[in-house]
Design brief:
Shape: globular
CATH topology of the largest domain: D-Maltodextrin-Binding Protein, domain 2
Strand order of the largest sheet: 2-1-3-12-4-13
CATH architecture of the largest domain: 3-Layer(aba) Sandwich
Oligomer: single chain
Low-confidence stretches: 1-23
Helix content: 25-40%
Radius of gyration: 23 Å
Mean pLDDT: 90
Number of domains: 2
CATH superfamily of the largest domain: Periplasmic binding protein-like II
Largest sheet: 6 strands, mixed
Number of helices: 9
Distance between the termini: 56 Å
Number of strands: 13
CATH class of the largest domain: Alpha Beta
Strand content: 15-25%
């Protein structure tokens, strides 16, 4: 009996030495920048906290790598400093790939962020006076998204030749003679506030800095259609890592009921689940 125990102990030791990684969770580094994937308040669980238990069962531990400037998350991913990120939609990623010669891909859409024209001054589109200023994002892809929203609201008309690449210079009709001020996505809310909260196109995540949640000050919401579905905030990885077990584990976790439940309970004021 003693000999059997000795043999079992030796076998267990050999197994541990050979397959030691099986006894410790492998780290998955995910770049994050904003809620619901990252919260500066550690007492409030974020979406990645919701999927951590499922990943832990498969032998993985999430390490959240926070980027105060979300634009830094794609270079970090392209350079292999992180395994994936959750900071963008497909169109933003495509622009980065073209400019940087990178090969990032969307592994899994997570949610559709609410995008809206905000105003504390006007309660209807008709009330907007001629010459009013509108703050819109200045980062290209979100500039186009804001202009497409304003077009769907009937406030401007864009050239037929443009879509996701639209810029202010592509406006061919502007009956109200609106004036456009382009600001960084992260400072649009502040500029809107300082100017008297007249008009701004922005995401609820950033409007939250003004204590705006739900429908507060939302004058017009972006329409959901085949065009705007491309704006789903997603999990991105390097193309070569798409079939990696770590990537597939995160994809499966992001497709779970836990994610849909988290978004419904904690982020319905700013999003709808992509699944």
């Amino acid at each position: 009996m003693t000999k059997l125990r000795t043999l079992a102990a030796v076998a267990a030791t050999a197994y541990a030495l050979t397959f030691g990684t099986a006894f410790a969770n492998e780290t998955i580094k995910l770049g994050v920048s904003f809620y619901p994937f990252y919260s500066a308040d550690s007492t409030k669980p974020d979406l990645l906290d919701a999927i951590s238990p499922a990943l832990a069962k498969r032998g993985y531990e999430i390490e959240k790598v926070a980027f105060l400037n979300y634009a830094e998350a794609n270079p970090a991913l392209a350079n292999g400093e992180i395994d994936g990120n959750l900071i963008q939609h497909e169109l933003y990623m495509d622009i980065f790939n073209t400019r940087a010669g990178a090969d990032l891909v969307i592994a899994q859409p997570v949610y559709h962020a609410t995008f809206a024209l905000y105003s504390a001054e006007y309660s209807t589109l008709d009330q907007i006076p001629a010459g009013e200023t509108v703050f819109i994002p200045n980062d290209g892809v979100n500039t186009a998204r804001a202009l497409l929203l304003l077009q769907s609201a009937g406030l401007i008309e864009l050239s037929d030749e443009v879509s996701f690449d639209a810029s202010v210079s592509d406006i061919i009709a502007n009956d109200k003679e609106l004036q456009f001020v382009q600001t960084p996505l992260t400072t649009t809310a502040g500029a809107y506030n300082e100017a008297g909260r007249k008009l701004a196109v922005m995401y609820p995540t950033f409007a939250r800095s003004l204590d705006l949640t739900g429908d507060a000050e939302r004058l017009y919401l972006e329409e959901r259609n085949e065009l705007t579905d491309a704006y789903a905030v997603s999990y991105a990885v390097n193309a070569q890592d798409l079939e990696d077990p770590k990537t597939q584990a995160v994809i499966e976790a992001l497709q779970s009921d836990a994610v849909a439940q988290y978004l419904t309970e904690n982020y319905a004021w700013a999003s709808t689940p992509a699944n």
